[in-house]
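Lab channel / #folding
Pinned by the channel admin:
"Please post every new chain as: sequence first, then the structure tokens as a reply. Keep commentary short and put observations after the output so the thread stays searchable."

First post following the new format, from NK:
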Amino acid sequence: MILVWPGKPLGRLLLIPALASFTLLVEFSLAPFVYAIDTLIASVAVADLLSLIGAGRFSAARRHAAVGSLEQPLEIEITLLNLGRLARGATVRDDAPGSFHARPAIFELVAPSRREAVLEYVARPTRRGTYVLEQVDLLVSSRLGLWRRPVRVRVSTTVKVYPDIRQIAKFTMLARRDREMAIGVRRTRRLGVDNEFERLRDYVEGDDPRRVDWRATARRKKLTSRAYQQNQSQHVLFLIDCGRLMAGDSGDGLSPLDHALNAMLLLAHVALAKGDRVGLLAYSDRIRAFVAPAAGANRVGRLVHAVHNLFPELVEPRLDRAFLELEHRCRKRSLVVLLTSALDEADAQSTGDYLENLSGRHLPLGVFLRDHSFFAMADERLDGGPALYRAAAAASILNDRQRALARLRRRGVFTLDVFPEQLTAQLVNQYLEIKARHLL
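Reply from TO:
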């Protein structure tokens, strides 16, 4: 069934006979004149309606990169072809999801007969995942614009939105210049001696003076240090909680899970650069994804592909299933980085029990993401009333949580307790410290 509805110009045109009809209240002899106006406008409207015949003859093609990055501009081009014999005025909108934030979102154009019109816009995806853009929607106007007809042109393309990996490129650039401190990654002094020479590099403050290469310094006329490789081919396995506590907004448009994935990707890049093997296991009330630990230049791409379509589920996470899967899949001693959130002492204690059981076979690192809302409630101004009770309840929960984490640290379990937006640098620093102390 073809749908057609009146446009705004027709509404304005119909005001003429409506206003003319009021003259009949004063002088009924003007009735033939009013009837003539009605007939003329009706004839024009019908004739203009007939001009929509064949208005649905359009074809379209869409071009864009197969992969986009979170919060990064994605250029999309639509080629629209009018197959009819008449030029058509149209309003065009692509089938971009609301999370793409398209600019411009709507186009107004006149599509020439049997010629192509190229439309370009920039989308900024704000949510990871795989998206299928199935159609292009048009609202075609009649010759005089009195009528409009919706036309749907089928054209299906798929785009995968991956986590933002700009931080990896930024870290790589800074590492080449020995300026990792710019993003919060501090240099860690190595304990003990690593025997395998890696490269010469510029001396930076904090380097061991015994590692200054004086011959290279004299040749380059610049202080130069010797860099040594750390132990390689060790395993780093990320355990990523995709349950209900990793949902929500951290205050910057990203969920705690988004921050956890961003931090995981950068640490994976750092670990791979140091020769370690990296893998992941994502879980909620079931196992969501598993990537076996391995090395290689394309490993980060494999991890990105594995997690790009992972979103928090409003279910209670089954950590027992995750650890059973870990025991079955990964038998070699590994640094197991658990990325999760714990609201209270019970959550932290139950998670800590599983981490303690890993000690000996693996080296566990528990990363607990803080909830801004609890800290905000605990810091509320105490003016009495409900605010006082909310602040007291939040402070009690946070104190219990801190006691549980402190108990884990006393038992030898490495822990990080951070806000989501501060996670990346602190997680990388913790890894570098573990490597420097040869704990793995």
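NK: Residues 176-180 have pLDDT under 50 and may be disordered.
TO: also worth noting, The chain is about 35% helix and 30% strand.
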